[in-house]
Amino acid sequence: MNVTTYRMSSVASGYRSCSTDVTQKKTLPQLLGTRLQRQRQRCPSEPQLKETVVQFMRHHQNLGDLLLEVNGSMSKRLSHYGKVNSEHQIADSPGKGTFIASVLQEQALQMDLPVGFLAARASMEKIQQIMQQGTIPKRAVILDSGQRRMFACLLQSMQELLSSNMLSRLQFIEEIWKAKELPTLEIVWRLHKESIVSLEELVSSNPDVSAVVCWLFNDLLCLGTEDADQHEDVQRQILLDLVIVLVRNAFQKLNIVESDPKVQHLTQICFTVLGKMIPYLLDTVWNEGEREHSAEQKTTIFWLDMFDVTLFHGAISLDSLKQFFYHTLTQSLTYNPVLEASEAIRRQGEWCFAKSKPLLVTLYRKLFVLFSAEELITHFQQVLESHEVNWQCVLSCASTLLVCQPESQKYLKELLTKLLINAFENYELESMITAFLLARQAALEGPAVFISYSEWFKNSFGSASSYHGSSKKSLIFLLKFLTDLVPFETAQYLKVHILYPPYVASKYRVMLLEYISLAKTRLSDFQVSIEELGLYEDLSTANAPPKPQCQAMQDVERAVLIFENSGKIPASVMEASIFRRPYYLTRFLPALLTPRLLPPAQDSRMVFIDSLRKADKIPENLYASYVQACGREKRCLLEADVSMSEEVQCPMEPIGVLTNALEELNKVVTEPSDIGVVSAQIAVISGQLKTMIDTDDDCTAMDKPIQLEIVIHELTPVESEVRDLLLKSFCQTFITATNFNPPQRQGEWASLFVKMLCGHRKLLSAVLTRVLHLTTHQGSSLADVHILGLAAFTVHLHILQLILLPMNSTGPVAESAGQEGLSFAEYLNQFLICRTGEFSTFCMRFCAAAVAYAISLSPLPSIDIIKLSVPSGFVQKLQYIVPRLIPEARQEQEVIKESMWHNLVDLNLNWRTAALSLFKQRLFKELTKVKEFQLTFHEWLMSELAVQPDKDLLVDLERQDYQHWACYQLYLPSPLSEGGCGGDLETACRIIMNALMDFHKRAKVRYCEESDCSELSSLNRSCYESITCRLQEMVFDLEKVWTKALNKSGHFLLDVFQDRMARLELSNLSKKLEHQIELQIFIRILVVLPPSLLFKTRKDRLRTTLECEAFFHFTNTELRNDCSKEFAIPFGVTLHFFRGLLNACVECEEPDCVVADILSVARTRCPLLLLSATFWWPRLEQVLITQWKRLTDDTFPRELQRMVDNQCWANRLLSGKVECSPPDIPWVLGASLYFTAKRKTGLAILQTTMKKICAENELVSVLCFSLMDLISSLLKPKESSALTVALKICADVILVLEEQNKSWLNIFLVANKDRGPHQILYNITSDMEIKILPVAFYSLIPGLDPKLLSSIIKRSDFLSVAIILYTGMVKLFLDGEDTMLASNQCDLQSSKQPDPLGLITRGRQFLLRAIPVCPAQTCLQSQLQVAWKDIDPELKAALGHHLNVCNGDDLYSEPTIL
Question: What does 52-76 look like in DSSP terms, one character per residue?
Fold first, then answer.
C-alpha cells in the first residue's frame, strides 16, 4: 500500500523522546547499538503507534489519490481490467473501503459538506485527471491502457462508496455536467456497465437537449476511427450498448412516453441522436468510393454492423427493433430528395442491383431481415405516399428487395395494380410516375425476378379492359403522360411503346398516332429508326438497344437458320427487301455479305446468298464486291499464316470475371440460410452474362415458350465457353452444397441459378441443347457428378414449368408436343427410350438421381407438394427399368421410410443399390399411386416393344420371364384405376393389341424417315414378336371362355379396331389414309391369333351352332371399302376365316350342317366373303382339305364341296363342254366362271363361253364383274391397254346379253334396292366403285357398236337409266370426286382416259342424240321426275319436247319449263 509522503520535520516533532544528537560523532556499530537499545526502552506500544499514524494521515491525505489506492493482491489483476466481459470485475477490499469512508466523513465534517457530494466531486476531479493523462494529444473516445487501469481502480472505489451510500448519483451526475470537459464515451459506457450511473440517468438529467445530443453525436462519430487495433472489440461493444440504449428509449410505446415528462425528454434526446446518425451514415454510404479510407468510412462500417439483428437478441423488444428498422428504412428512402422523377427516368438503368453501391445494398439487406416481403412492400407504399423520396434510393431498394426476397414479386405486382387504379381513378400523376418507375426497375433485374417491361406494358394497357379503357378522359390522361415522358425516355422504352402501343378505340386512333409520331421523332434524335429494327429483334427488355451491326448479324444468323430448316427464303427477309429497304440494304446485306474464307463445299450461308441472288434481292455490284473480298481474304490467309482467333475470341478477362463469380457462388452456397448473399451473387453472374453475351433477348418473359433446336446452330467461341462453364459450375456447386447439406436445406441457390439462366434466352437454348445432347448421346460416359448435377438442373427446370417448342423434330416427339409445347423434363423424357442395355442403365441412373433429388427437396414429405417437383416421366421410367434390370424389385419388399438421398452422395456410389432403395421408399411408392405418375400397361408395352433384343442386357429366357411377370403378376391383377387390367384377360388383350398397333404405326413413321431402314427390319429390331407371343398366349387362355360367352355383344378383338376408328375424324384425305394403315396393321395382328376366335358357339336344344355376325359386319364395313382388291379381301383373312370355321365346326355335333348354316348366312349377309373364297379357291382348296382330314375322318362339308364343283364346272365350260350348271346361286356361278376365265385365258374366250349359258342371272353377274374391272381401271390406271381391254370385255358381254335379249340395264340402278336379284352384287363392291358406276356407263355405252347401241336404246328402261346416271355423273363432278379418277394428268393421257369434263360433255351429247330416237313406250314421265331437276336446261328442253311428242301433243312447239 502506498502511504502518503509527509515531511521529516513533522515526524521528528512527533517522536522527540527517541531522537539523538546527530552532530555527535560515533562509529556505526555504536550508533546502531545505541539506537536499538533506546528503541527497546522508549518506543510506545503498537496500538499507540497505529493511532498516531492514522491521525497524521487524516490531516495530510489527498482524497483523489486515495480513491485510486488498491491493495497488493489486486494490483496484479488490474492489467486484466478493461475487458468487456463481467467475469473480470474487481473484488472488494474491506480494509480500504472502511478507511476511505472514515476519511470522507471526517473531511465532510471539517468542510461542512455532505459526504455524497464530497465523494462525487472527488470522483469527477479524478476522472478529469485520468482524461488529461492520455497519450493521445487530441480528445479520444477510447482510453489507453494506462488510463483504463487507473479508471478501473476508481470504479472499484466508487462501487464501494455506492454500496455504503456515501456516493450520491445525483450529485455525481451534476458534477459531470459541470465539468470543463465531459467524460469520454468509454468512461460513460463503463459507468453505465458498472451500474454507477446509467446512460439514461445521465442523458435525462440535462435539460439542454442540444448539448446532450451534440456531445453524444460527436463521440459516436469518433467510434471506429481509432488506429489501435487492440481497442476494436471495445469500440464495437461500446457502440452496441449505446445503440441498444438509444433504440430502447427512442422507440418506446406511446402510452409510456406520454405519461412521464422525463421519459419524453429522454425519448427526444435518443431519437434526435439516432436521427442525426442515420443521415450521416447515409451520407457516407452515398459517397462510397470517393473517400474509401476515410474515418467516416470506418464509422459507417461500424454502424452497418450494428444492424445485425442477432446482436439485439434479448436486449430490445421486437416491436422497438422493428420501429427502429422502419425508421431507418424510411430515412434511407427519403434521404436528400433532390433527384426529380425525370432524372430518375433517364438514369434508373444505372441503379439496378448489380450496379448499386455495395454499402447501400448491405444496409438494405440488413434492414429486410426482420420483415416479410408483404410488410416491406406495405411500408414502401406508405413512404411513397407520404414523403418526398430520393428516387435513386427508392429504386435501388426495390431492386435489392426483389433480388433478395423473391416472394416480393407478387406483392410488388399488387402495389403496381393499386398505383395504376389510383392513378386512373383520381387522375393522379404521382401514382402513374411511381408505377412506371417501379415496373421498369423491377424489369431491369431480369425475368428470374420480374416480368419484362414490354410484357408489363402489354398486360397493363394492351386490351380494352385495361385501366385506360373505361373513358376517353383516361385515354387522354395516359397518352399525355406518355407524351410528357418522351423527352426523358431512352430509346428502348420508346420502341416498346411504338411496337406494343396501348389499346385505343378506332375513333381515338388519331391521338395515338400523334404520340407515335412524337416517339419516332425522339428516336431519330437517338439516331435510332424504328424502320431499322432487326428482323427478329426482341423488345422485351428495357436495356439499351443493341448496336445495329450486332442486331444485323443476329438477324443474318436467324435467317440462315430458318432457310436451312425450311429450304425457303424467310418471309421476313422478303418483306424487308420491299417494305424496309433502307435496313435491308444498309444493315442486313452488309452483315450477310461480310467477307470470309469460303468453305470448299457450299454451306447454308452460301446457298442462302445464291437464293437471294437468283430472286434479284442482291444487287450485282454488291455481290461482285463480296466475291472479290472473299478472294482477297483467301489470298491473305495463304500469304501470311496469321491466326484470326484474337479477333473473334473474347478477351480472357470477362471469362475470368465470370469464373470468379461462379467460384464465389460455390463458396456462399455452403451457408444456405443467408439467401440474400446467394441471390446477390447470382445477380452479379447475370450482370456479367449480359456484358459478355451481346444479345438483347436476355429479359424475355419466363412464361414465353422457348424454341429448342435439335441441332444447335453455330455458337461463337465465347458462347460455347460460357455454356460449358455454366453447366460445369452448376454441377460443381451442386456437389459442394450437397456435401454440406441435404437438398431440403440447401436453400434457393439452384432455383435462383436456373431462373437467372432463363433470362438469357439464347444462352438458355444452347445450355438445354447441350444437356439434351449429353444425356441422349453421351449418357453412358458421364461421371456420377455430372449425372447428379444434370438431374438436379432438369428438376429445377421442371419446377419452373418452362415451356419448349421443339424445332426440327418429327415423329412421336413432335406429336406429343402439339401446339402447347412441353416442359424440358417431358421433352427430354421423349428421348430416354431404353432400346439398348447400355442406355437403359444410364436412364436408371439419371432418373433415379432426378426423382430422389426432387423428393428430397421438400422439407415436408407431402405427396401434394412433392408431385409438383417430380417429373412424371422419370417416375414412370423407373417403374419400367428397375424391375427389368433388378429382379429383386419384382418381389414384395419392405417399405423404407427414411430418406434415400445419402445413397446417392456416398463416396462408393452403387447405382443398383441406390435405385433399389428409391424403388422401396415410401414416398416413391405413394407417388406411383398418383394417376399421372402411374406406368400403365399400355405404356409398359410401348417401352418394352422399343427394346432391341440383340443389344438387350437380358437374354431371351430372362426377357421372357420378365415379360411374363409384368403381364401376369403385375398388370393383369392390378385395378384399372392403377393402369392395370382388373384381372380381365379380355382387357389385357385389348391393351396389347392397341400397343402393337401404335408401335407398328411408329415403325412405319421411322421407316419413312430412315431410308436405310425397312418397316420389317424396324419390327425385327424390336420386341414386337415377343409381345405378339404374349398376346397369343393370353388369347389361347381366353379362347374357350370367349367362344361360349353369348351374352356379350360384339367381338373384343374387332372392337379394338372400331374404338380406334371412332377416334379418327375421316373428313380429309390424310385421315382416310391413316384409316387404311390402321386396318392393314390390325389385319396383320388378327391373322396370327387363333382363327376359331372369330366364332361363337350357341346351344340350340341338343344341337350346337356357330355365329359370326361381328366378323361379317367387319367385312362389310371395313374390308369391303379398304381391303378388297379384284372383288376379294386378302387371302390371309379369307384363309383365317375358313380355318376358324373348320376348327370350330368339328366341336359341334353336326359339322357339315354347321358349315352349311354359316355359309348360307354369308351368301345373304356377307357375299364378299364367299366371293373372296371363289377368287382364292385354287389356293384355299388344298389347305382346307388337308386341315379337314387332320381334324376329322368325315367327308368334306357339302357347302365347301359345292365350291369345288363350281370350279370344276367353270373349267369344263371353258374347255368347250356344255353341261348343266351346279345347284348354286347364279352370282356364285358367274363369279366362278369369270375368275376361272380370267386366270386361264385372260377372258379372251369369255364371249364364246357365255353364249353357251342360257341363265339370265349368271350372264348378268358376269357383266357385273366385268364392270367392276372397268371401274378398277378407271380408278387405278396401270397400262394404256388396261382400259381398252376392260371396255372390250364389257362390250362383248353386253353383246351376248342383247343377242339373248336378257334384261341387264337394271344393274346400274344402285339406288333402287328392289330392282332385282342382282342388287346383292353391290354388297361386294366398295362405296367408291358404286359412285363411279355412272362414269363407267358413259365410258362404255357411247362407244359401243352402232348396231348394238341402237338395240340398247330401244329398250324400255334405257332412257330413264341414262338420265339418272348422267345426273349422278354431273353430281360426282360437282362434288369434286373427279380427282379420284386418276392420280395425275399423265395417267389420263397414258391410259386414254377422258378427262371428267370431257366425259360429261360426251355423255350430254350422247343423250341429246339418243332422246329423239327412243321409242314412245319408253317415255314415262314418272320414271324421270326424280332426275329432271338436276339436268341442264338444254337437256330438259329436249327431254320435255320428246315427252310431249310421245304423249301426242303435236301442237306443242316450245319445251315445257320443268
Answer: HHHHHHHHH--HHHHHT---HHHHT
| CB of 652 closer than 8 Å to CB of 718 | no
Give the span between the Cα atoms of 696 and 736, in whole angstroms.
33
**Using an 8 Å Cβ cutoff, are 787 and 845 in contact?**
yes
What is the residue type of 751? S
Q: How far is CA 426 from CA 102, 431, 461, 504, in A?
A: 80, 10, 17, 20
Q: How far apart are CA 71 and CA 100, in angstroms?
A: 13
* 358-402 per-position pLDDT tens digit: 888 889 888 998 899 999 999 989 999 998 999 999 999 999 999
Task: Give the residue carrying C-alpha cell 430448316.
Answer: 565
Which neighbouring-strand residues pair with 1128?
1125
- 317: which residues sit within 8 A by CB, 6+ positions away? 248
Which pLDDT belongs to residue 1424?
58
Residues whose CB falls within 8 Å of the CB of residue 905, separated by 6 or more in sequence, listed in order: 738, 739, 788
Q: Taking the C-alpha atoms of 114, 118, 123 and 125 in order, what is their torsion angle to the nearest 10 degrees?
A: 140
Global model pTM greater than 0.85? no
What are the DSSP calls for 195-218, one per residue? Answer: TSS-HHHHHHT-S-HHHHHHHHHH
> Cell 476508481 belongs to which residue?
154
Fill in the amino acid letter for 648: V
pLDDT of residue 1232: 86
Flag whether pLDDT at 160 surpasses 70.
Answer: yes
CA distance 838 to 883: 16
Distance CA 511, CA 850 (A): 56
Report d(CA 1458, CA 1439) in Å as an integer. 10
Q: What is the mean pLDDT of the chain?
A: 78
Which residues is 806 bridged to in the sheet? 708
d(CA 1333, CA 1335): 5
Residues, the chain, total?
Answer: 1458
Three-state DSSP state, 807: strand
Determine contact, residues 282/216, Cβ cutoff 8 Å: no
DSSP β-bridge partners for residue 1107: 1096
- pLDDT of residue 323 exceeding 70, the answer is yes
Distance of CA 826 to the CA centre of its chain: 9
CB 334 within 8 Å of CB 390? yes
In one-letter notation, the amino acid at residue 1258 is E
CA distance 496 to 441: 15
What amino acid occupies position 1339? S
DSSP H stretches of helix in 717-808: 717-740, 749-758, 761-777, 784-800
For 836, other C-beta atoms within 10 Å of its C-beta total 17
> Strand pairing of 1096-1100 and 822-823?
unpaired
Between strands 803-807 and 706-709, the pairing is parallel
Residue type, 219: D
- Of the pLDDT bands very low, low, confident and very high (cuts 50, 70, 90), residue 575 is confident
Q: Distance (Å, rounded) from C-alpha 322 to C-alpha 370?
A: 7
**Alpha-carbon distances, residue 1201 vs 91, 1179, 1185, 1356 (angstroms):** 132, 15, 10, 42
Dihedral over Cα of 509, 515, 521, 525: its sign: negative
Q: Which residue has the cell 438514369?
A: 347
Helix and strand element counts for the chain (H, E): 73, 5
Give exposure, 152-172, as e/b (b: 16+ Cβ within 10 Å): bbbbbbbbbbbeeebbbbebb
The single residue listed with the C-alpha cell 450461308 is 605
DSSP 896: B
Dihedral sign, Cα of residue 739, residue 744, residue 749, residue 751? positive
Q: 658 phi and psi, to 5 degrees?
A: -65, -40
Can you tell me the distance from the alpha carbon of 40 to that of 308, in angstroms, rounded to the nearest whole number?
A: 73
Q: How far apart are CA 67 and CA 154, in angstroms?
A: 6
Tens-place pLDDT, residues 1007-1038: 444 444 444 455 666 888 899 999 999 988 88
